[in-house]
Amino acid sequence: MTATTHQALDYQLFINGTWTPAASKETFDVINPATGEVAARVAKAGLEDVEAAVATARQVYDSGVWSRKTPKERADILNRFARKIMEHGQELAYLEVISSGATIRRAMSTDILGIAFVLQQTAAFALEFPYVEGLAMTGASNNQVWREPLGVVAAITPWNFPMILAMWKLAPALAMGNSIVVKPASYTPLSTLKLAELAIESGIPAGVFNVIAGPGASIGEALVKDPRVDKVAFTGSTEVGRRIMELASGTVKRVTLELGGKSPAIVLPDADLDLTVPGLLYGFCLHSGQVCESGTRILVHDSLYDEVLERLAQLASKVKLGNPLDATTGMGPLVSRHQLDTVLGYIQTGVDEGARLVCGGKRATKGELARGYYVEPTVFADVRNDMRIAREEIFGPVASVIRYSTVEEAIEIANDTIFGLAAGVWSRDANKALKIGRELRAGTVWINDWHAMRPDAPFGGYKQSGFGRELGRHVLEEYTQVKHVHAALAPELKQRPWAGMLF
Ligand code: NAD
Predict the structure, then answer these.
(1) Which atom of ligand 1 is nearest to the CA of 261?
(2) Transmembrane ranges (predicted)?
(3) Kind of pairing, strands 18-20 and 13-15?
(4) Does a structural domain hold residue 491?
(5) What is the pTM (predicted TM-score) of this model?
(6) pLDDT (tens digit, 9 = 90+) per residue, 206-256?
């Protein structure tokens, strides 16, 4: 363990509204990726803790204390939860920074405001949701379609945006009346644990929202296999997503999967480079490139190729790497030593494959940076789309620039990937860009922008980037099921069409 020069925080599991040690009393360390120091010690859940969390969530769901509240009662509490989050914004942002390496600049703005806004927007959508729909009368019966909660949801989240990705599942699950057990990634459980405490203070009944931290391979799999869990909402790698889908089949569970990406950004010959070049860098350097929808394949037309490369290298040198708690830092560290090794390994692969390194390509070790897991913004030129650095998700600040000659060729390269999370076009001609957008097989298309999300717009993947949608109105369908209720109105046997079938 790394020596600490500060007091590490202590966190337990949050089950049935109470801070709870792991049954085994074991803990694990959360490391601050900017310093390598232990930021927190967290109770390490085992199978007994999964049992306790799922049993509580199930019992509370069945009791109706949350599931049978009116939509308005639930929406009021969720809005209170949003206000609590704003009041505790600084603490939540701090927890996110010291575990995930998010910059405080981003965490305090888009993350905190973003999750509060998601709660408010989801609560508003839930008030307009068609819980009961009457069908047209075609005979002597009253027919209705009821939409009901699923029951117990297990949410399994990754380490890159722990708070945001937990909220994308929590908000719709809670709004629709489900109970939930969240299993955050072991690098970053802190903000999710804090959210559970704030939920109780906001009036969400104990046991509705539980958090257990620990290894995915044991407690994650136990959640997926548990017959009392009705749905698994997963965000993470495509590899683990496949495994979850396979395991969920044992109990024919619903699954939504938000997985990896290798998103193409097409730069058309008429692109405004004063906007496009900073936009491309933002596309692959936000959160040190650890974003599922990062624009990591940059497709540039022949006519602009050399200029784009030169300007990318120039601007990349201006991104300030530093401690993410410093408000002037633009790019923080990668989440872990392991991720650092993975990213450096891919950079070596790019070199070995014959791609040309235009800038970056190294671990950043100047001064204080040497303590953390920093990588310089890295651009590869002369990349072919069949190289590994163009096909696999690197999850670091590394872009592969690919040259093209015609729009048809650009679209073909853009779609030549197993992923389909996002894609984008940079052009001065909006109509041309929209036309290309129609050809791109991805769940989100950005034109002259990147990473732009809003709580009323759905987010999710095409192809092996997953299925199901988060955010937007569509997400409420993912946390409900439909029931058809037929009430016959004719009292006499002889008026029933089936009377003559059997007797
Ligand atoms: P990961 O797949 O390794 O882990 C995600 C979560 O799954 C963690 O909580 C982990 O503990 C758990 N887990 C691991 N093995 C498991 C198993 N066998 N059964 C059940 N749970 C298990 O992903 P990560 O490294 O934490 O995150 C990075 C990945 O997430 C990237 O591939 C990225 O593209 C993806 N991601 C996708 C989106 C999206 O919305 N599409 C958003 C963010 C991240």
Answers:
(1) 34
(2) none
(3) antiparallel
(4) no
(5) 0.96
(6) 999 999 999 999 999 999 999 999 999 999 999 999 999 999 999 999 999
